[in-house]
Design a protein that fits this description.
The chain has 275 residues and is α/β, with parallel strands linked by helices. 17% of the residues lie in helices and 24% in strands. It is globular.
Length: 275
């Protein structure tokens, strides 16, 4: 397997003093493909308050179908997000496959950091395995090899990102049945790879599920849909009428903090801190 890597720049002395550094801040937003202007305003507000090192997207980057070429006018959907000056690290969703997924790989969009369908990017405290779950979820390919992607990782935290949920209180946490069974079957592989947190979208709400690994659903970038049936291990989920929103990770050598925000940048939950 070919593994591509990227790194968020930090001073050489940073690793020496990592335990006392401020947290690495990463915004997580998914299913953004119907327009990013509202979400970009919320992320921009938090970035002004304290710098955000990266934006992770959990797939379905462009609706109703992904771009077909570098000249596709639908790229403009991502302009508000790419104009923030924050590196964007995407994965592919099923709607991106409706276009040409390879057109998104390596595209010269400002701040677009997408070197391969599966790749790793590293921060001072965590390594992120960015997965393509699409062909596995629909039964056309073997499961993504998370362990191979993270084999060289020496980071304190290991995080995997894919489009499809392992577990969820939304529709895709239950249906289609075959897809759901395949994704649940990935949980032992995540554990073998010592993944601390699995991040996904596909379901259009915000949610945090306890377990090993813990699971973060952030798919409320556009066309929000409330959860269908609350999972037994859910710590927090967006409730009531669906609203656009995103999650914020703050990662240090000792902890991961997760908090949920709406598109205006207003907190919708408390910070959930895991040591």
């Amino acid at each position: 397997m070919s593994v591509r890597t990227g790194r968020i720049a930090c001073p050489p002395f940073a690793k020496m003093f990592l335990p006392v550094l401020l947290a690495v801040r990463i915004a997580v937003v998914g299913d953004i493909g119907a327009g990013t202007e509202a979400i970009a305003r919320g992320i921009a507000r938090l970035n002004r308050e304290s710098p955000i090192e990266a934006i992770v997207t959990t797939g379905d980057n462009i609706y109703p179908c992904g771009v077909k070429s570098l000249n596709d006018p639908r790229w403009s959907v991502l302009t508000p997000l790419s104009s923030l000056g924050i590196p964007i690290h995407p994965v592919l969703g099923n709607h991106d496959y409706c276009g040409d997924p390879d057109a998104e790989i390596g595209a010269p969009l400002p701040n677009w950091r997408f070197p391969a369908r599966q790749y790793v990017f590293r921060t001072a405290a965590a390594d992120f395995a960015m997965l393509d779950t699409n062909r596995y979820a629909d039964g056309r390919a073997p499961p993504p090899d998370v362990d191979a992607l993270l084999k060289a990782s020496t980071a304190r935290w290991r995080i995997a990102v894919g489009h499809h949920p392992l577990l969820s209180s939304g529709y895709h946490g239950h249906f289609p049945r075959d897809e759901h069974r395949r994704m649940v079957a990935l949980i032992p592989a995540m554990r073998r790879a010592r993944v601390d947190l699995y991040i996904c979208g596909h379901d259009h709400h915000l949610e945090l599920i306890d377990g090993r690994p813990r699971m973060l659903i952030s798919g409320a970038g556009s066309e929000p849909v409330p959860p269908l049936l609350r999972h037994a291990q859910t710590i927090w989920a967006s409730e009531g009428p669906g609203y656009r929103g995103f999650a914020m990770l703050e990662i240090t050598a000792d902890s991961i903090s997760i908090r949920f925000y709406d598109a205006d940048g207003d907190a919708r939950s408390r910070a959930f801190v895991f040591k």
